[in-house]
Amino acid sequence: MENLLQQTPLVATDLGEHVDQFDAIIIGAGVTGLYALYRMRQLGFICRIFEHGSGVGGTWFWNRYPGCRFDSESYTYGYSFSEELLQEWDWKEQYSGQPENERYLNFVADKFDLRRDIQLSAHVVSCVFDEDESCWEVHLEDGHRARGQYLLTSVGILSAGFIPDFEGIDSFKGKWCHTVRWPKEGMDLAGKRVGVIGTGATAVQLIPEIVKEVSHLTVFQRTANFCAPLRNGPIDDETQREIKANFPEIFKKCNETAGSFIHEFDPRSAMEVSPEERLEQYERLWAKPGFGKWLSNFYDVMMPGEANEDYAEFFRNKIRERVHDPVVAEMLVPKDHMFGSKRLPCESGYYDVYNRDNVLLVDVREAPIERITSKGVKTRDSEYELDVIIFATGFDAVTGSLNQLDIRGEGGKTLKDKFANGPRTYMGITSAGFPNLFTINAASVGNFVRAAEPLVDWVSEAMCYVRDNQFTCISPTLEAEDAWVNHVNEDGAKILRTQANSWFVGANIPGKARVLLTSPDTAPVMRAKRAEVAANGYEGFLLQ
Ligand code: NA7
After folding, report:
1. What pLDDT does residue 53 have?
2. Dihedrals φ, ψ of 390, to 5°?
3. Contact assessment for residue 435 and residue 407, using Cβ atoms and an 8 Å cutoff
4. CA–CA dist 195, 388 (Å, integer)
């Protein structure tokens, strides 16, 4: 089948130009896009990926900052679709770093001969639905155009980097960058006075690495986070053999949990066991690597209430133990949000950084940053002179990367306008008035690859259904979309993830509507809902 698909058909336009024609155009060559290409090709669809970067890997191509790595176990994060790939690739560390992750995705691209259908350094500037031809036309910055019956956005939920609108950035005489655009050649930080703005998961990975070479580090913190020790280590040969023999079991376990991680909640309530037993469990989980401290605990630790607060206090005391100066320790202790209401950053030496003489923690909630000056950062109280400023200030999640594509559906209406008060989708992946568009970036949370594979499988099966039944378009009904949006809002309001000011609800972006940007459902529920929709002949969709 694949050999038949080597050549890209061309169609002539009214202007006599040639426009590349595909069955499906996929935007983004990260973990989701690469698998989408593989899967759709298998099913006989002619596809092309347009990727902005000069290499494949998405998140693992762009985020080159020191310390960038998985917080989920490496062997649970890889693709599961090929047994050969699972056996060939050796993860070297329990929590693999960016360079190895990028190598892995390049290995996948080569192994499955994906590159011939990937156009790198291709900057999509708009995607317009042609109602007469029922297809999408994608415009690239260099003037090229391509058409496809389907448009799949695999542009990531966290890829549009956000830099606060501080005045004066251009006047800064030193160097600056956002962590998502860390230069390939690195930043020269040796012996420099460096400022890091932000203390989210990215900064928590970055700071312990760069502190080794800077002359002085100033960390500008607005919100203290609950950060847990990662406890990374190499994977020895025996463990490697065990992992390789147990992949079906590993993936089965992941697929049964809410976020597709390998960690399972304890069905007991924290408050029903004795204080000694409770503490014993907290300490045992604390000593283990990874997200277990978050996702293997008593189930009610992840619900607002006494158990949540009890564990939060255990956590706070762990931070206090690590930081010598009690004033600095109290600044690092989170007090304004519940444990688990934000994504748990994992750290490797983060708190110890604040015991060094050349590190200063600045509370910018108390004294906000007023502007960037030619010399550094000016807060309400002081000016901090710096040679380098690093913005670890996060992302315009989910909708930010979609907005950059300028997607225009029926009647020329833009997805950006439609999503102005939050995503209006059916199941996170389709939107009324945008036929044959699958926003596959917007529906996966948790252990990303575990969520992305079944999602792509579902989308590709829907495309086969359209093809096999001689339809040309699939798009959700307004009723189905309204019901989904209500579900996201109502059930989203009940979960811990919507209780804090974080990217999960767009609260990190000034002016962005505060709504849950992803599904409130667990991964197994999401898969079951999609399966039911398909089993009922794509219930909630218009097929034409
Ligand atoms: P996050 O988690 O959104 O963190 C961004 C950080 O930047 C966070 O500490 C913010 O403080 C801070 N920030 C943002 N704007 C400002 C301003 N104006 N002033 C001061 N500080 C600011 O992004 P990350 O890149 O760390 O992590 C994103 C995800 O990547 C993470 O969840 C993982 O899934 C991987 P705030 O907390 O908003 O007060």
Report:
1. 98
2. -110, 120
3. no
4. 6
- Backbone angles phi and psi of 350, in degrees to 5: -60, -50
Residue nearest to atom 3 of ligand 1 (CA): 394
Q: How far is the CA of 498 from the centre of ligand 1 (A)?
A: 16
Output the CA 202–ligand 1 centroid distance in Å.
Answer: 8
Mean pLDDT of 33-50: 98
> What is the residue-wise DSSP string for 185-205?
T----TT-EEEEE--SHHHHH
The helix or strand, by DSSP H or E, that contains position 541, with its residue range, turns out to be: strand 541-543
Question: Do residues 139 and 128 make contact, with C-beta atoms less than 8 angstroms apart?
Answer: yes
Over residues 409-452, the pLDDT tens digits come to 999 999 999 999 999 999 999 999 999 999 998 776 789 999 99
What is the Å distance from ligand 1's center to 197 Cα? Answer: 9
Query: What CA dihedral angle connects 246, 248, 253 and 258, to 10 degrees?
Result: 140
Reduced to 3 states (helix: H, G, I; strand: E, B; else coil), residue 77 is helix
Give the contacts of 373 (CB within 8 A, at least 6 positions apart): 168, 171, 172, 383
3-state SS of 283-325 is: HHHHHCCCCHHHHCCEHHHHCCCHHHHHHHHHHHHHHHHHCCC
Ligand 1 mean position to 260 CA, how many Å?
24
End-to-end CA gap in the chain: 27
Closest CA to 288 of 263, 305, 265: 263
25 Cβ closer than 6 Å to some ligand 1 atom: no
Ligand 1 pocket residue status of 334, Cβ below 6 Å: no
Residue nearest to atom 18 of ligand 1 (CA): 164
Pocket flag, ligand 1, residue 431 (CB < 6 Å):
no
Quick one: tokens of 462?
């829907």
Confidence of residue 6 (pLDDT cuts 50, 70, 90): very low
273 burial (CB, 10 Å; 0-12 / 13-18 / 19+) is middle
The number of angstroms, rounded, from the C-alpha of 138 to the middle of its chain's C-alpha atoms is: 24
Residue type for position 21:
Q
Name the amino acid, one letter, at 55.
G
At CA 467, angle to CA 24 and CA 539, rounded to 5?
A: 100
Query: Among 221, 222, 179, which residue's Cα sits nearest to residue 202?
Result: 179
Digit-coded pLDDT (tens) for 233-244: 999 999 999 999
Strands (DSSP E) along 59-174, which ranges? 118-119, 124-130, 135-140, 145-153
- pTM summary value: 0.95
Report whether residue 508 contacts ligand 1, using a CB cutoff of 6 Å: yes
Residues 6+ apart with CB under 8 A from 360: 216, 217, 218, 219, 384
Question: How far is the C-alpha of 309 from the C-alpha of 306, rounded, in Å?
Answer: 5
Helix (H), strand (E) at residue 106: helix 98-111
